[in-house]
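C-alpha cells in:
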C-alpha cells in the first residue's frame, strides 16, 4: 500500500463528498449522525472475503466494489424497503495501491448512486491476507409494507423474478477462461454486474399481498428451503416452470453441465422469491412485468410442512428438492 490510513481516508472522504439530506455528520468523525424519518428502519450487513466471494484475478475492482453495495441493497429490497445509508470497512492488502482503493470506491459509488444510497462512514485497516470488506446498510420501510421470510401460507403461489443460473454460469466461464462472446459474455456480465430488485419488490407490494419474500443470494433451491423453514411449511416446485437463463443453457453445453443444476444452485442472482395468495398470482405477474420489464414466473405452490420441499416433474413424479446452493462455511466460491 502506497498510502497511510489517514491519507486513504481523506481520499475516500473527498470521493464520497459531504453529508446530505437527513445525514448531519458523515465521514471524518467517530460516527455518522442522521435524523431518522417516521418509517421503520432496516439494518443489514454483509462481509466479503477475497477468493471466497470474489477474485481479483478476473473481477475488476470497480465491479467488486459495486457488488459490495448491491448485495446489501438486495437484502433491503427483499424486506420491502428502500436503502438509505451505508458504512464500509475495508481490510486492504499490501499489494493494493491507493489508486486501486479509489477504483474500488468508484464502483461502490456507482452502485450507491444507482440505488439512492449515501455512504456515511466506515474504517480502513491493513489486511495480511487478501482484500476484505464489511458493509452495513440502513434502509427504510413503511410499517404496512414489511415482508419477512416467515409468513408463507399453505396454498400460496410461489413467484420468482427473472431467470436463474446466469451468475453461476458466468463464474464458471471466467474460471475456465472461456472466450467472452455472445452468451458467454452475457453470463460473465451477469456474474460481475448483478442488479438488485428494488422496483420489482415495490411492484409486488403495490398490487398484491406478499406473505413472504427473500432474495436469491445463495441459490434458488437453497432460498426455497429458507422460506419453508422460516414459515414452517413445505414447498412444491414445478420442474418445468423453473426459468432457466439462456446463459446457463449455453455454458452448460460448453462445459457439460446440466443447466437445471446451474439454475437451482446459482448464488448471487439477487432475484426475488415471493409467496402470495394464489388468487392474486395472475394479475400480480402481469403488473410486475408491465411496470418493471422483468420476467415473473409462478414456479410452484406452498404446501403442508409434512410434504417437505419437493420438485415435481411434468408427469407428476416427485423428488426432494436438491440441496444445492452456496454454503458460506463449506467451500470457496470466487
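Residues out:
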Amino acid at each position: 500500500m502506497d498510502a497511510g490510513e489517514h491519507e486513504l481516508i481523506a481520499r475516500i472522504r473527498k470521493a464520497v463528498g459531504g453529508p446530505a439530506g437527513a445525514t448531519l455528520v458523515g465521514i471524518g468523525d467517530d460516527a455518522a449522525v442522521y435524523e431518522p424519518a417516521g418509517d421503520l428502519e432496516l439494518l443489514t450487513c454483509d462481509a466479503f472475503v477475497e477468493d471466497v466471494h470474489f477474485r481479483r484475478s478476473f473481477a475488476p475492482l470497480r465491479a467488486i466494489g459495486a457488488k459490495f453495495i448491491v448485495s446489501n441493497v438486495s437484502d433491503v429490497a427483499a424486506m420491502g424497503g428502500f436503502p438509505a445509508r451505508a458504512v464500509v470497512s475495508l481490510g486492504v492488502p499490501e499489494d493494493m495501491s491507493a489508486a486501486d482503493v479509489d477504483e474500488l470506491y468508484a464502483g461502490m459509488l456507482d452502485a450507491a448512486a444507482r440505488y439512492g444510497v449515501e455512504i456515511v462512514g466506515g474504517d480502513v485497516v491493513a489486511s495480511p491476507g487478501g482484500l476484505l470488506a464489511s458493509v452495513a446498510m440502513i434502509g427504510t420501510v413503511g410499517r404496512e409494507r414489511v415482508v419477512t421470510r416467515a409468513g408463507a401460507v399453505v396454498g400460496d403461489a410461489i413467484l420468482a423474478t427473472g431467470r436463474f443460473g446466469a451468475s453461476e454460469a458466468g463464474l464458471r466461464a471466467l474460471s475456465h477462461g472461456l472466450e467472452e462472446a455472445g452468451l458467454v459474455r452475457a453470463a460473465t456480465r451477469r456474474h460481475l454486474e448483478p442488479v438488485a430488485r428494488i422496483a420489482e419488490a415495490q411492484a409486488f407490494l403495490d398490487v398484491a399481498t406478499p406473505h413472504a419474500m427473500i432474495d436469491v443470494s445463495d441459490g434458488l433451491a437453497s432460498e426455497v428451503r429458507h422460506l419453508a423453514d422460516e414459515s414452517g411449511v413445505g414447498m412444491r416446485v414445478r420442474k418445468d416452470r423453473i426459468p432457466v437463463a439462456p446463459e446457463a443453457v449455453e455454458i452448460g453445453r460448453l462445459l457439460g453441465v446440466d443447466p437445471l443444476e446451474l439454475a437451482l444452485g446459482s448464488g448471487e442472482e439477487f432475484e426475488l422469491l415471493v409467496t402470495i395468495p394464489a388468487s392474486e398470482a395472475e394479475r400480480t405477474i402481469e403488473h410486475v412485468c408491465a411496470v418493471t420489464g422483468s420476467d415473473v414466473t409462478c414456479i410452484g405452490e406452498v404446501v403442508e410442512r409434512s410434504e417437505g420441499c419437493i420438485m415435481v416433474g411434468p408427469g407428476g413424479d416427485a423428488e426432494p428438492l436438491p440441496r444445492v446452493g452456496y454454503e458460506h462455511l463449506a467451500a470457496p466460491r470466487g
